[in-house]
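F.,

This is the one I mentioned.
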């Protein structure tokens, strides 16, 4: 009977359906996994800072939106849901940070729940960003109020986004478990039985298609038409709106495109569509770990992109602080913009 070597790559613990826990014949010269040379304490500090910034920023966004809910726009409703999604993700980061130090020591129930919350954030955030891009497209390109901009329909869209995200994240609840490989710390990973590798590849491909590629195409198309319209406009406010929209797309791509490109290369390699070598495997594993940290940063950058540079957000936050005597009312500006990222009406279709 052939001897086998158990191979596990720690960098895949966070990746979408990418943990590689497999049996490989010894005579096939298996690779020895090489992780990114980042001290565990540095990673814990990074996760802790991202978690704190995300909790603070998104909590402030939620506070201001709820405080001004009587005058909030369609986009504000999307931003409120986006802040909730990022807030849920921030709550999972301490668990992942702890697992970087000692492995997964929280048991299978927490493994399922924390992985589920992280996955729900992954889907809901990108789907909500796609909804925001469609709202900006309708408001600026068509410059008119549409049926989808009625309050109850916006809530219906948001509920559907959450519903789709929950359904797409169900594999985490069904298949995630705590595994105790010999000579390694315990890990939180998905167990699909005898078809683990095949099933994981199918789930990963579906994750990339519905969780990144399709929403990205929607964003690029909507923002592309929006930018074209803004280029034709000679109004100063619309040019400022163009800069904000460009920043939204740019930051999103900078944070998530590298990770998804590396994940695509890893998928191609594991399906033998490109040649697999030890050097290439280790390069991809290190790139996955580095680019995923970059992707995590997006959750704390969202408040900066969509709210902190917004005139209404500053006004709303200062008004709350003035109400409770934290600042003088003299700091309040005379008026505020109708929305964090612009009104959805035809005559005020500007951004920030």
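My design for it:
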């Amino acid at each position: 009977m052939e001897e086998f070597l158990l191979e596990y790559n720690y960098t895949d613990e966070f990746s979408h359906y990418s943990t590689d826990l497999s049996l490989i014949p010894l005579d096939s010269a298996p690779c020895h996994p090489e992780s990114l040379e980042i001290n565990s304490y540095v990673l814990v500090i990074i996760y802790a800072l991202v978690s704190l910034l995300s909790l603070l920023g998104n909590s402030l966004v939620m506070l201001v939106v709820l405080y001004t809910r009587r005058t909030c726009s369609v986009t504000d409703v999307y931003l409120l849901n986006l802040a909730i999604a990022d807030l849920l993700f921030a709550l999972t980061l301490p668990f992942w940070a702890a697992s970087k130090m000692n492995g997964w020591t929280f048991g299978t129930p927490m493994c399922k729940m924390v992985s589920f919350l992280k996955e729900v954030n992954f889907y809901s955030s990108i789907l909500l960003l796609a909804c925001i891009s469609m709202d900006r497209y309708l408001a600026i390109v068509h410059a008119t109020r549409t049926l989808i901009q009625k309050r109850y329909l916006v809530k219906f869209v948001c509920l559907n986004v959450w519903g789709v995200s929950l359904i797409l994240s169900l594999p985490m609840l069904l298949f995630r478990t705590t595994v105790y490989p010999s000579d390694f710390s315990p890990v939180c990973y998905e167990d699909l039985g005898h078809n683990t590798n095949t099933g994981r590849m199918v789930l990963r491909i579906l994750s990339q298609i519905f969780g990144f590629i399709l929403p990205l195409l929607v964003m690029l198309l909507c923002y592309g038409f929006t930018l074209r319209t803004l280029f034709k406009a000679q109004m100063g406010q619309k040019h400022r709106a163009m800069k904000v929209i460009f920043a939204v797309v740019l930051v999103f791509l900078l944070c998530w495109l590298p990770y998804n490109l590396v994940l695509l290369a890893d998928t191609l390699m594991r399906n033998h569509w490109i040649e697999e070598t030890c050097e290439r495997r280790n390069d991809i594993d290190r790139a996955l770990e580095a680019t995923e940290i970059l992707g995590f940063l997006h959750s704390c950058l969202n408040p900066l992109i969509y709210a902190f540079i917004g005139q209404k957000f500053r006004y709303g936050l200062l008004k709350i602080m003035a109400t409770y005597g934290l600042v003088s009312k003299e700091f309040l500006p005379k008026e505020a913009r109708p929305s964090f990222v612009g009104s959805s009406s035809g005559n005020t279709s500007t951004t920030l």
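Residues 1-15, 17-29, 343-352 have pLDDT under 50 and may be disordered.

Talk soon.
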